[in-house]
Specification:
Structural class: alpha+beta
CATH architecture of the domain at 68-189: Sandwich
Order of helices and strands: HHHEEEEEEEEEEEEEHH
Distance between the termini: 50 Å
Radius of gyration: 18 Å
Largest sheet: 6 strands, antiparallel
CATH class of the domain at 68-189: Mainly Beta
Strand content: 25-35%
Strand order of the largest sheet: 1-2-5-12-7-10
Shape: globular
CATH topology of the domain at 68-189: Jelly Rolls
Length: 189
C-alpha cells in the first residue's frame, strides 16, 4: 500500500495549489522534505546513513570512534537561515537541486581560501556540485535570484557524527586568513 506523507494528506488543495510551471516555495519544500531548523545548515533532513561502519582504528586519530561509510542530507538555505561558519572532518560534496545559486566561502587547512558558486547556470560559471575538502571552514550566502532559497544536498565520507563538526570563530579566522578578511566579513556580517 502506498502511504502519503502527512503534509500531503492534510493539505488544503484550494489554498496550496502549486503552479507546476514554477518552483515550490521554501515553505512547501520544507514541508515536502520534512526539513527542520539546523544549527549550521539552514533547514536539514538526513536522507542516508550507511549501516556499514569504518572501525575507529582504520580512521585518522582525529576521529573518535567508528564512522559510517557515508552520510547524506538535504539542506535548504534562505536569507534568514544561512550556513554558519563551521567545518567538519570529512570531505563533503554539495549538490544543487533548485532555487537560487549559493555562494560558498571556503577557508582551506593550508591557509588559502576561495569563493565558489554552486547552482545551475553553467554558462555563468556555476556548477551543480561543489567539493568541500574535510577540515575546511566554510559559510555561505544566497546569491540573488527569484526563488529566495536554495535547495541542496550534501554527501559526506566518512559519514559525519556530531563530534566531527566545529563552529568557527570569525575573528580568529580573520587573523588566520588575512587575505580573506574582507570576504569573511562580507559573508558573516
Amino acid at each position: 500500500m502506498l502511504s502519503m506523507p502527512s503534509w500531503w494528506a492534510n493539505r488544503n488543495v484550494e489554498e496550496e495549489m502549486m503552479n507546476l510551471e514554477t518552483h515550490p516555495t521554501a515553505e512547501e519544500v520544507k514541508a515536502m522534505l520534512s526539513l527542520k531548523p539546523h544549527p549550521t545548515c539552514g533547514f536539514v533532513a538526513e536522507t542516508y546513513r550507511s549501516p556499514l561502519k569504518i572501525p575507529s582504528e582504520a580512521l585518522p586519530e582525529a576521529y573518535e570512534g567508528d564512522r559510517p561509510y557515508g552520510s547524506a542530507l538535504y539542506f535548504l538555505v534562505s536569507p534568514e537561515a544561512q550556513i554558519v561558519m563551521h567545518r567538519i572532518r570529512s570531505d563533503q560534496l554539495y549538490h544543487h537541486y533548485m532555487g537560487d545559486p549559493l555562494e560558498v566561502l571556503m577557508l582551506y587547512p593550508n591557509g588559502t581560501g576561495a569563493v565558489a558558486s554552486v547552482g545551475s547556470d553553467l554558462t555563468g560559471g556555476e556548477r551543480p556540485q561543489l567539493f568541500v575538502p574535510g577540515n575546511t571552514f566554510h559559510t555561505s550566502r544566497l546569491a540573488s535570484g527569484d526563488s529566495g532559497y536554495a535547495l541542496l544536498a550534501s554527501t559526506e565520507w566518512p559519514g559525519v557524527e556530531p563530534p566531527d563538526v566545529e563552529h568557527g570563530n570569525v575573528e580568529e579566522l580573520v587573523v588566520a586568513f588575512p587575505e580573506m578578511a574582507a570576504q569573511i566579513h562580507a559573508f558573516t556580517g
